[in-house]
Amino acid sequence: MSLLEIENLRLEIGGTPILRDIDLSIAEGEVMGLVGESGSGKSMTALTIMRLLPDAARTSGRVTFDGIDILAAPEAAMNRLRGDDIGMVFQEPMTALNPVKTIGEQVAEGIRWHAGANRADAEQTARQILDRVGLPEAKFPLSRFPHELSGGQRQRVVIAIACALKPKLLIADEPTTALDVVLQKQILELLRDLVDEQKMGLLLISHDLAVVADMADRITIMRHGEVMEEGETARTLSAQVHPYTRQLALASMHVPDRKKHAPSADDAARPLLSVENVVRHYPGRRTSLFSRPEPFRAVDGVSFSIRASQSVALVGRSGCGKSTLARMILALDRPTQGAIRLNGAEVSAMSETELKPHRRDIQVVFQDPYGSFNPRHKVERLVAEPLHLLEKQPGPAERREMVAAALHEVGLQPRDMDKYPHEFSGGQRQRISIARAIITRPRLVVADEPVSALDVSIRAQVLDLFAELNGKLGVAYLFITHDLTVARAITDDVMVMHEGRIVESGKTIDVLDNPQSEAAKALVAAAPDLHRALQKRLAEQG
Amino acid sequence: MIAFLSKRLGIGLVTLLVASAVVFFVLEILPGDPALLMLGMNATPEALASMREQMGLNDPVLVRYFSWIGGMLVGDFGRSFTYSSPVIDLIAERVVVSLPLAIISLILSTAIAIPVGIFAAARRGRMGDTVSMGVAQVGVAIPNFWFALLLVYVFAVWLRLLPSGGFPGWGAGVWPGLKALILPAIALALPQAAILARVTRSAMLEVLGEDYIRTARAKGMPRRYVLWRHALRNAMIPVLTIMGLQFAFLLAGTIIIENVFYLPGLGRLVFQAITQRDLIVVEGVIMLLVASVVVVNLVVDILYAVVDPRLRVSA
Predict the structure, then answer these.
(1) How far is it, in rounded angstroms, from Cα A299 to Cα A323?
(2) B1 and A CB contact within 8 Å
(3) At CA A459, angle to CA A455 and CA A460, rounded to 5?
(4) Total number of domains constituting chain B
(5) Which of chain B's residues have a Cβ under 8 Å away from the Cβ of A110?
(6) Interface probe, candidates A89, A98, A149, chain B, greatest B C-beta count within 10 A
(7) Which residues cross the membrane (chain B) (predicted)?
(8) ipTM for the complex?
(9) Pair A92, A368: CB distance under 8 Å
């Protein structure tokens, strides 16, 4: 008999159907991958198993865990199950821990509650599990607070909490989505080892087919609250019997068709952007009252240049300095040393007034299409924002025309300008932020993880849009990303950044196929790859 | 921690200095001659002149300002013209009434507000929430002097349990003194509790939506445990801020209640001093209040750091 058996599960929240007839089962020691795009009901399925749904939720069907009818169990019985027999790991490690309690308290709390252990015993068990997840006592005593740990370390604490009592089932809801690829690989390996050691069942929820293909024995694909297809991972993903499975697989490996914009001889000779020996210090932590603190070198002597219509990727792990570098290129921050030139003019030394005419040549697209708009402004005003940088201010009619043209270029309707951001989906919002970036006809667009918050199919469309605008407008790109598939899909050249320095650069294909530096090798090795994962699985099965 | 404290103390001292300058010079430019007020409208010019000389009113402004500050540093707040006794004695007599009253009111309002706020947040949108927040709304809206009269009617006139007003002094013993402060403290605490309960509720609601609350629930912790052990401490920052402001208000903003209960508190002292142009008393009381606000803020800052470890590092 399976450890977890879900049959005909239906879920409504406030009258809106969320899940329809979900069937899903997990055996002991089995890894089940649950895949789907945002809004497909993956997380709601997980929360149903935990019975942590919002108050307005109504469920029907059967969820049986280890012989217990979850949907009918009293709350006290659920409290005994949660954290003991079922553990859960969440997506966002930065906010998943209580900021006012030490990590020791937070790990030991569940142990004391379930096992009835005294404080000392509970802390000893907590110590062991923290050692196990890779947080040794010397550097991570129990008295550490969450804010003293990085995202990857916090996720290890969350895993320690979930696995402290050797649960029979572990639910991991997008456990690595907020982490960079190298950390992702480490966390996934940790989960894999824990599953093997403790014979846990694992429900791994992800939007990333490559991650699931690598980890899961079986896979369930969801869409709009329904199960599309279910089966053994390698067979399901290679056969692609169901059209939606096929669509997902294609979208996650999508490479846009790029028509090269032929640069004029003049453009090709002269760099559009040149970064010369740029250094950025931040004040370091004071270690003694009397000596000056050693500054933290976030960016440490970086030089490169971008030509007109060139598309360049800046890749690296989180904290390597890529966003600091981007802020300086956007003239939102100034280098401690070195110079940044745009069209030959040294923008890094200009006053805000002198900068103004240059700002329209360089625009930005941010990662989060939800957080980067003022929700109370209409699209017209949002997209028109950079227009104040123009020398001649357009009149109201002309302004509407320019906004309409920009919206048209990113594949939206001109009438969309009278709507508010909340009326659009995530992908559409990212189109709006691209429209805002191109309305001044910039020569360079800096895009900071522009597709990492998007679902695979929407991400494919947005990548197509970037490629199209590159061909049509001749705009150059600097893509900042930790996702090598994005770099591969859309850039000519790549620079690998590590601890504030650029350690490797060259043609994207050359660098990614044949990395030379340690940092680049680590990134390439850790990047999930659907092809590779499937081949490995099929080879294992013979 | 020491760097943090000394920085906060430094800011407090600067605040005091700025406040003293503002208080002194604003009162300086107000119309009204204290010497004239003391001697009455029929005083002879000679008597007036010698009075001004005696009170030091003829000295240059800056000299008077610095001698005033210098005096306060050694505990000499000057002499009241109207009471003809040292200001420090006048203040001391009133502080023994106002300070216990403020402390009792704050304890009462906190003891009522925090459980009510937590209760309402835990039952968001349900009966208990609607009713308790409705009562809180009424509590904010009721004028406290009216509520005070109601209390007097019920407890003093009808039940005859507590005195209707006046203050016997602590010399008569602790219990009679406390008895005289109970009704005014309740009257003061009610609106404060209503505001604090609403603040607690909204702070708790915000915290209850956080991811770490879900993590705690996923550990198998029951709802009530999560509410008290995980949510409350995180919700304390805005609650502490409001409590600090309320305490400062309770020390001196109680003139109406003091009048209703005929209590000799700081509010009445400053009110009488203003109507009689007894500027030296007004200045002294205001400086005392500024100092108490500075101290309360310092305490609140320290409590922030106690509650939230993230505030301990940066200073």
Answers:
(1) 10
(2) no
(3) 125
(4) 2
(5) 219-221
(6) A98
(7) 9-30, 99-122, 134-158, 178-197, 231-257, 285-307
(8) 0.82
(9) no
Any A CB within 8 A of B222 CB: yes
- List the single residue in B with minimal CA-CA distance to A107: B219
The answer to whether residues B159 and B223 belong to one domain is: yes
- Please check whether residues B164 and B308 belong to one and the same domain: yes
Distance CA A486, CA A479 (A): 9
Sheet containing A501-507: order of strands: A362-365, A444-448, A476-481, A311-315, A493-498, A501-507
Q: Do B219 and A161 touch (CB under 8 A)?
A: yes
Q: Rounded to whole angstroms, how far apart are CA atoms B181 and B194?
A: 20
One domain for residues B99 and B239: yes
- Residue span of the structural domain in which B248 resides: 91-313
Confidence of residue A505 (pLDDT cuts 50, 70, 90): very high
Whether B215 has its CB under 8 Å from any CB of chain A: the answer is yes
How many beta-carbon contacts under 8 Å exist across A and B? 73
All CATH 3.40.50.300 domain ranges of chain A, comma separated, are 83-205, 270-283+295-361+443-528
Asked if residue B68 and residue B105 are part of one domain, the reply reads no
CB B80 within 8 A of CB B55: no
For chain A, percent of residues with pLDDT exceeding 70 = 96
Angle at the Cα of A291 from the Cα atoms of A286 and A293, rounded to 5 degrees: 35
pLDDT in tens, B46-92: 888 887 787 777 788 888 888 888 888 888 888 887 888 899 999 99
CA dihedral A431, A432, A437, A441 (to 10 degrees): 90
**Contact (CB<8Å) B217/A147:** no
Q: A83-205 adopts what CATH topology?
A: Rossmann fold (3.40.50)
**What CATH class is the domain A270-283+295-361+443-528?**
alpha beta
Chain B nearest-CA distance from A511, in A, is 39
Q: Which amino acid is at A505?
A: S
Nearest chain A Cα distance for residue B1, angstroms: 13
Model pLDDT for residues A298-333, shown as the tens digit of each residue? 899 999 999 988 999 999 988 888 989 999 999 999
- The residue among B15, B47, B76 that closes a domain is B76
B33 touches chain A (CB under 8 A): no
Mean pLDDT for A268-285 is 85
